[in-house]
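ok so for the tutorial part 2 we go from a plain amino acid sequence to predicted structure tokens. step 1 is just haveing the sequence, like this:
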Amino acid sequence: MAKVEDKVRVNGQIRARQVRVIGADGAQLGVITSEEALRLAQQRELDLVEVAPAANPPVCRIMDYGKFRYTQKKKAQESRKKGGPAGVKEVKVGSGTSVHDVDFKVGHIRKFLGEGHRVKVSVFFRGRAITHPELGRAMLEKIAGKLADVATVEQSARLEGRSMSMMLVAK
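step 2 — the prediction. this is what the tokens look like for a chain of 171 residues:
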């Protein structure tokens, strides 16, 4: 993503001979030379910022450029934040995990779902525990039951190598 500073010409960077100027209050000041517009901006201790370089003549606005950059940066951060979840979070649980530890993991899953993430819950089997996949399935069903108020099962439990996993999404 290109930075805002790279796209916008300010003060002496403006190369057009004549520009259409908009004052700090939003009033049109008309088409004047860029030198005159720059002088007007300096009198008001503000910057001359080219806001529409493709227009004929280019449109410039008299404003505080530092404040403009700050607000643009905040808008970009906000749009990234609202852009959607980062993806899938995975929570791993052992096949012999205690009830308290499972409840602790359920709290983490609730937090991830609240943030809008999809959550992959994996039960991994150590040693001979793989011979009892029904224990892993029961644990995943128990976790899904505890999260029934906030989540739905997008993908039911399935065995993948030495782990069994399911996918949860927020309701």
